[in-house]
């Protein structure tokens, strides 16, 4: 993962595609009213956190709408040229389209972009059927687009700072892991256990093992711990050949100090210089030379 790339934006692009989010400069005001709006004049909300809609459930709702009509209005805002943008109610909007309605009841609010984002995301975040990745993306978008701190966000959605942090950590995971959470292959608990694993290939391998062996969250935590320990041990055993320049310097310093020094480093480039001595007198001699 590119460290300079925002994880939430990356995940949104991978799961939703490249979305052009329009920015309209309007005065921050609220004008409310109920009315019927032609369904073709309503456009979807680009800030909608839900990335998947159950088709069978939509068709069931559409049948209910055919029978009883759309009971609960959607919430929209005018965006010019007789068009409106959904703030909330996309599931009802889609079902109404399936039902063949030409007009639907709507609650119209005139708000600016920032308030529209907050209304859309906060309203949808409260829904029980959002998956953990959709919630995490919504939290990150609220932070980015509305310039909120985690504490401010927590106050708006009624969650603790720890809960917000736990969701946001999911966005550090690879797209493959995020999709596995989204599709219900692994739980949020499984995904959280994978956060310490930085290598995306290792993440993918662990996800396959979790799914194939139907591991519990506790078993996954143990697996991740063993994997990380194994990687550290393997890393420490890798012998790095010193460059000619370093070996020449090692020889020159050994001759200068009158004792054979050791230089070692690991694969990350970290290492140490060791200067052995056999007596207090030799130590004093070495320190005098170094000074």
3D structure, described in words:
The protein has 291 residues and is α/β, with parallel strands linked by helices. The chain has 13 helices and 7 strands. The protein has helices at 7-16, 55-68, 90-99, 113-125, 132-146, 150-157, 161-169, 175-182, 188-194, 200-213, 217-237, 244-257, 280-290, and strands at residues 32-38, 42-43, 74-80, 83-88, 103-109, 262-265, 271-274. A 5-stranded mixed β-sheet has the order 1-5-3-4-2. Helix 1 packs across helix 5 (132-146), helix 4 (113-125) packs antiparallel against helix 5 and helix 5 crosses helix 7 (161-169). The radius of gyration is 29 Å and the shape is elongated.
Sequence stretches where pLDDT stays below 50 over 5 or more residues? 1-32
Task: Describe the global form.
Answer: elongated
Strand order of the largest sheet: 1-5-3-4-2
- Largest sheet descriptor: 5 strands, mixed
Q: How many helix segments?
A: 13
- Care to count the β-strands? 7
Structural class per helix/strand content?
alpha/beta
Strand percentage? 5-15%
């Amino acid at each position: 993962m590119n460290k300079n790339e925002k994880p939430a934006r990356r995940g949104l692009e991978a799961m939703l595609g490249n979305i052009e989010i329009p920015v309209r400069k309007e005065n921050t005001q609220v004008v409310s009213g109920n009315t019927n709006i032609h369904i073709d004049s309503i456009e979807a909300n680009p800030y909608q956190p839900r990335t998947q809609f159950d088709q069978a459930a939509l068709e069931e709702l559409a049948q209910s709408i055919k029978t009883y009509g759309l009971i609960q209005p959607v919430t929209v805002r005018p965006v010019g040229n007789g068009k409106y943008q959904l703030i909330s109610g996309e599931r009802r909007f889609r079902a109404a389209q399936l039902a063949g309605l030409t007009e639907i009841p709507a609650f119209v609010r005139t708000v600016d972009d920032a308030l529209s984002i907050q209304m859309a995301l906060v309203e949808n975040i409260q829904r029980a059927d959002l998956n953990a990745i959709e919630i995490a993306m919504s939290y990150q978008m609220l932070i980015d687009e509305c310039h909120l701190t985690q504490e401010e966000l927590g106050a708006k959605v009624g969650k603790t700072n720890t809960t917000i942090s736990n969701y946001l950590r999911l966005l550090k995971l690879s797209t493959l892991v995020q999709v596995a959470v989204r599709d219900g292959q692994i739980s949020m608990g499984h995904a959280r256990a994978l956060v310490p694993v930085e290598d995306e290939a290792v993440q993918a391998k662990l996800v396959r093992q979790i799914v194939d062996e139907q591991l519990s969250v506790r078993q996954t935590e143990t697996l991740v711990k063993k994997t990380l320990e194994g990687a550290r041990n393997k890393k420490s055993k890798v012998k790095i050949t010193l460059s000619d320049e370093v070996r020449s310097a090692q020889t020159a310093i050994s001759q200068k100090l009158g004792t054979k020094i050791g230089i070692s480093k690991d694969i990350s480039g970290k290492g140490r210089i060791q200067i052995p001595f056999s007596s207090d007198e030799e130590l004093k001699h070495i320190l005098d030379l170094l000074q």
